[in-house]
Design goal:
By secondary structure, this protein is of the alpha/beta class. The chain contains 13 helices and nine strands. The protein has a single domain (about 30-100, about 110-325), classed as 3-Layer(aba) Sandwich (D-Maltodextrin-Binding Protein, domain 2), CATH 3.40.190.170. Strands 1, 2, 3, 4, 5, 6, 7, 8 and 9 form a nine-stranded mixed sheet that branches. It comes from Sinorhizobium garamanticum.
Length: about 325
């Protein structure tokens, strides 16, 4: 009888070890990405990120989940990027300007009139120079670019005076994100750049710390900035391409099929969202006109395009700009 009890005990011990091992394996195969962006919940991007999250979770059968945080709930973009570099399971919607702080050349994507259509923006994914910059970001700086098929639309100058030429921006303090290509672009186009976080724009305008901002139409409606701004001046000076970044360390620890799901669904959701943004842009413009904002369409865009070249010269990235544009046939 004692032999039977010993055998039973051994069997139960073995079964317990198997169950524990399976549990550990299952825990290791479950991953969560906490994804941060600065835009409001009413913006097309937020729904796009939710769509991305849903598809990844479905495709990995719950093995990889993306929790989406809007309105910079996890923190300021620059701080989040530094956390990502340290290996945190956090993602961030960002732009080439901020990535240019680590790999200077890639900042050209954020420059004036660099790309001017979704076709050009999506073609960037096949440019060899872009691939090289992404590799450098991943290998040297710990930033894995998941994809950059997210195009936020054309940025215009929103002010309290009419703007038709670069000269009209003289003395205007225009809010920009804190990155060199942003600063130099706005300076080249004729204004005085003021670095400020997105959430501070409304009170900044109220307190007259700034005279205007350069944003896309849906930003204005989502943040009710029409309450403190009168004119939408259609310079269309930057077609904003956004990058979705995660930690290289975290990404490399994912199972290969999870990596593939994360990347492929990012491309798909991004391109869909970019097209939705185009429609939202027209809707937001009409809404702003209904709210009393004046849209200035007769802008000397060629004068702004010529002026914008000074930004590339100031940063010493003219060669990089020309090389990538040649690779995408622009």
């Amino acid at each position: 009888m004692m032999i039977t009890n010993k055998r039973s005990a051994a069997i139960f011990t073995a079964l317990g070890a198997v169950i524990l091992a399976c549990g550990m394996a299952q825990a290791q195969d479950s991953y969560t990405l906490r994804f941060n962006h600065v835009l409001g919940p009413g913006e097309p991007y937020h729904q796009g990120f939710l769509n991305w999250a849903k598809r990844v979770e479905e495709r990995t059968k719950g093995g990889l989940k993306i929790e989406v945080f809007h309105s910079a709930q996890l923190g300021v973009e620059e701080d989040i990027i530094e956390q990502i570099r340290q290996g945190a399971n956090i993602g961030q919607n960002t732009d080439a300007a901020r990535l240019g702080n680590y790999v200077p050349g890639i900042a050209v994507v954020n420059g004036p009139y660099f790309v001017e259509s979704l076709k050009d923006a999506f073609a960037l994914g096949k440019a060899p120079t872009m691939a090289a910059w992404q590799n450098e970001l991943a290998e040297k700086h710990g930033l894995k670019v998941v994809c950059f098929d997210w195009v936020q639309g054309f940025r215009n100058f929103f002010t309290n005076k009419e703007i038709r030429t670069p000269e009209d921006l003289a003395g205007q303090r225009i809010r920009t994100p804190p990155a060199p290509i942003w600063q130099e672009s706005i300076r080249a186009l004729g204004a005085e750049p003021v670095a400020m976080n997105f959430g501070d724009i409304y009170p900044g305008l109220q307190q007259q710390a700034i005279d205007g901002a350069e944003l896309v139409y849906p930003n204005i409606t989502a943040a009710n900035l029409n309450e403190v701004l009168k004119f939408a001046n259609e310079t269309r000076h930057i077609l904003l391409v956004n990058f979705q970044v995660v930690s290289s360390q975290w990404f490399n620890n994912l199972p290969e099929e999870y990596q593939t799901a994360l990347v492929e669904e990012c491309h798909s959701a991004g391109q869909e969202t970019s097209k939705a943004v185009e429609a939202a842009e027209a809707k937001a413009k009409a809404t702003l006109q209904e709210r009393g904002m004046t849209v200035v369409e007769d802008v000397d865009r060629e004068a702004f395009r010529r002026a914008g070249e000074k930004a590339y010269e100031a940063l010493g990235v003219v060669e990089a700009k020309n090389k990538v544009q040649a690779e995408i046939g622009k």
